[in-house]
Design a protein that fits this description.
single chain, 308 residues, alpha/beta, Peroxisomal Thiolase, Chain A, domain 1, 5-stranded mixed sheet, 10 helices, globular, binds oxa(dethia)-CoA
Length: 308
């Protein structure tokens, strides 16, 4: 069966860095609390979702040796669109001169992995090249006087180019899930601010990552011991550690970037993937496990053989 592989990737974060000490200067919080409870040391803040998506998308296209004219479909995962209408992907399509279609996909923090699985389906339906972007400006829907949320969020974007292959592709297994009965645990009403029941989300998140990762690995005929690189959603370093340990994936295989970027929702997994690639942590043939979870609740995991 024909498949697809990632041939380009790129990241973008705003220039402005906000440290824990910056936040402690105006909120009743501390670097010690934020570091210990979340693993976050700083986050980048600024820009718009379309600007960050355009920058990351342009870098991914350049690395793949392509331009927008080569792209059949642009899928933009975001939970912080520039506007309700039109989709933010329309702006990015125009900026990058994407020849094909463009749509937004909102599955909260699981959005990038959802998009990756959907994009593989599009290649089976005949699309040859797809640009996938996860881009967020959570800072715009955050109440900066609410210490519970303000210390967690960051802005950024990550993108990959997915190209159809003649032979076997990269996607070996996947798992997508949702449970809308939990939608009250993490939400932002229209025009409002982000709200989260942190403790409950934490509990569900660890279980979601473990169960969804296990399901995707089982579909690939694999076990956690086969994973060379574990790229989880970056919501809390303690969630990553709890899930990694329960799955039995060695710590040196986890990608952790939350210390530098905070929680960037659907941008966190492509940002982490770009970080691992820049650090030379991925080789052809490696098995990569991506696993996201978030508002909805939703969860999504994908097992890739890097290079196909
Ligand atoms: O990406 C989407 C999914 N999101 C997540 O997965 C996030 C999941 N949840 C979490 O990561 C954690 O629950 C948080 C980091 C949000 C909170 O950590 P926690 O260990 O669950 O803390 P808590 O909410 O139980 O609060 C503990 C204490 C409370 O004080 P008392 O009641 O013990 O006196 C809070 O008021 O910490 C207090 N607190 C803070 N203190 C200093 C809450 N926020 C802060 C803060 N600085 N920023």
């Amino acid at each position: 069966m024909p498949g697809a592989r990632i041939t380009g990737w790129g990241a973008a974060v705003p220039e402005k860095v906000v440290t824990n000490d910056d936040l402690s200067a105006r909120l009743d919080t501390s670097d010690a609390w934020i570091t210990e409870r979340t693993g976050i040391k700083q986050r980048h803040i600024g820009g718009t979702t379309s600007q960050l998506a355009t920058q990351a998308g342009a870098r991914a296209l350049a690395q793949a040796g392509l331009t927008g004219a080569d792209i059949d479909v642009l899928v933009l995962a975001t939970t912080t669109p520039d506007a309700t209408v039109p989709g933010t992907s329309a702006t990015v399509q125009h900026e990058l001169q994407v020849a094909g279609g463009a749509c937004d996909l909102n599955a909260a923090c699981s959005g990038f992995v959802y998009s990756l699985v959907v994009a593989h389906g599009l290649t089976l339906a005949g699309a040859r090249r797809i640009l996938l972007v996860g881009s967020e400006t959570l800072s715009r829907i955050t109440d900066w006087d609410d210490r519970a949320m303000a210390v967690l969020v960051g802005d950024g974007a990550g993108a990959v180019v997915l190209e159809a292959t003649e032979g076997a592709g990269e996607l070996l297994g996947w798992d997508l899930g949702a449970d809308g009965s939990l939608r009250h645990l993490l939400k932002c009403d229209l025009g409002g601010y982000l709200y989260m029941n942190g403790k409950e989300i934490f509990r569900h998140a660890v279980r979601a990552v473990v169960d969804s990762s296990s399901a995707a690995l089982a579909r690939a005929g694999m076990v956690p011991g086969d994973v060379d690189l574990f790229v989880p959603h970056q919501a809390n370093a303690r969630i990553i550690a709890a899930a990694g340990q329960r799955l039995g994936i060695a710590e040196d295989r986890w990608v952790v970037t939350i210390d530098r970027y905070g929680n960037t929702s659907s941008a966190s997994i492509p940002l982490a993937l770009c970080d691992a690639l820049a650090a030379g942590r991925l080789r052809e043939g490696d098995t990569v496990l991506l696993s996201g979870f978030g508002g909805g609740m939703t969860w999504a995991s994908a097992v890739l053989r890097w290079g196909g």
